[in-house]
Design brief:
11% strand; TIM Barrel; alpha/beta; 44% helix; 14 helices; seven-stranded parallel sheet; two-stranded antiparallel ribbon; binds coproporphyrinogen I
């Protein structure tokens, strides 16, 4: 028998794509697959078009964004594109003095520390990011049946960059602020939630078919701190776009937070490679679609190793209401792109 939301016929509408179908907990014609950081330094065609153009400048050039976003779709035949942008783009757009430094990541000129710093975070409006609206519009036209995933950073991960001033392994200033001045922390995160929610809404209004909220570094927190200091703000972001397109909520090292991250309001829970999909399904009560979770480092192993692991992950994913195949985190820069293409072919061949 065919379930009512089955994806049995090829459709020109991305809302009927394998990705959106799986995200909504339906049976797609094959397990959809895309890769976090699929656009970028693993691709020679990316390096070529980015040459001499700083990262943040490139994010504000709709023609270039369109080309870079399409590159992995053309090359690998993945089931979704993800907008080429960055989680700090909306912060830059409202005037925060920051840059993305090659080989480092986002660097904030004056890290946030006091209540006065909140003045540097006005509300985001669509007028701040016209180039996002333009890029998404042109991408949706180019992509046809292939869905475009929009995204944002979650309040905790954005706050970490603002407070630390750049990438951090310890998140020491962030944790000190969170616990030392909870009122300021909550006000900071409330502003970031407005910015993140609006950034998602802009992408949906321009035609994105799904969204992912990246709380990349929230795995640094114990569960009690997550629930008290972070979850309400992530919930607000997810709530902004509820009922519009499927939502994916992802973080790294979040095995202990997975049930809470799912309950914060999402259709799909992103799973990193540390936790098996079987455990992820169990921890979230079988109530959510799952996305993941091949270890990006395994792409450097011999093909038979990769093949066995991919088959295992696809099998484990069948226990969830829907499964989107992905890596457990982003593609590493030195990855051989032909291995990614081979993974896509394998996942599709498994039905
Ligand atoms: O000059 C360059 O090429 C810089 C490298 C680069 C790229 C290609 C950065 C700097 N950002 C991006 C694009 C990007 N960033 C995308 C779109 C590309 C795609 O996925 O195909 C996305 C979704 C992001 C989101 C992003 N930026 C996240 C969340 C995803 C994740 O990997 O967890 C995070 C944490 C960032 C911050 C960031 N931006 C760039 C770097 C190197 C980092 C991480 C720095 C750190 O370790 O803290």
């Amino acid at each position: 028998d065919t379930p009512p939301n089955a994806d049995t016929t090829a459709s020109a509408d991305p809302r009927h794509s394998a990705l959106v179908t799986a995200a909504r907990g339906g049976r797609a014609r094959h397990t959809p697959v895309w890769f976090m950081r699929q656009a970028g330094r693993s691709l020679p065609e990316y390096k070529k078009v980015r040459e001499g153009i700083p990262m943040l400048e490139s994010c504000a050039m709709p023609d270039l964004v369109t080309e870079i976003t399409l590159q992995p779709v053309r090359r690998h035949g993945v089931d979704a594109a993800i907008l080429f942008s960055d989680i700090v783009v909306p912060l830059k757009a409202i005037g925060v003095d920051l840059d993305i430094v090659a080989g480092t990541g986002p660097v904030v000129a004056e890290p946030f520390a006091t209540r006065a710093d909140l003045d540097r975070l006005p509300a985001l409006t669509p007028e701040h990011v016209p180039y996002i609206t333009e890029a998404v519009g042109s991408l949706v036209a180019e992509l046809g049946p292939t869905p475009l995933i929009g995204f944002t950073g979650a309040p905790f991960t954005l706050a970490s960059y603002l407070v630390e001033g750049g990438p951090s392994k310890t998140h020491q200033r962030t944790k000190a602020l969170m616990h030392g001045d909870p009122e300021l922390w909550h006000d900071l995160c409330a502003r970031l939630a407005q910015i993140a929610g609006t950034f998602l809404q802009v992408q949906i209004d321009a035609g994105a078919s799904a969204v992912q909220v990246f709380d990349s570094w929230v795995g640094a927190l114990p569960r009690t701190d997550y629930l008290r200091f972070v979850e309400p703000h992530s919930r607000a972001v997810l709530e902004t776009v509820a009922g519009q397109v499927p939502r994916i909520h992802f973080g790294v090292g979040t095995g202990e937070l997975l049930a809470d991250m799912a309950a914060a309001g999402t259709e799909v829970i992103g799973v990193d490679y540390r936790l098996s999909l079987t455990d992820a399904v169990q921890r979230t009560g079988g109530a959510y679609a799952v996305q993941g979770n091949l270890d990006p480092a395994l792409l450097f192993a011999p093909w038979p190793v990769i093949e066995a692991r991919v088959i295992e992950i696809v099998e484990e994913g069948r226990a969830a209401p829907g499964h989107i195949f992905n890596l457990g985190h982003g593609v590493l820069p030195d990855t051989d792109p032909s291995v990614l293409t081979r993974v896509v072919e394998l996942v599709h061949s498994l039905g």
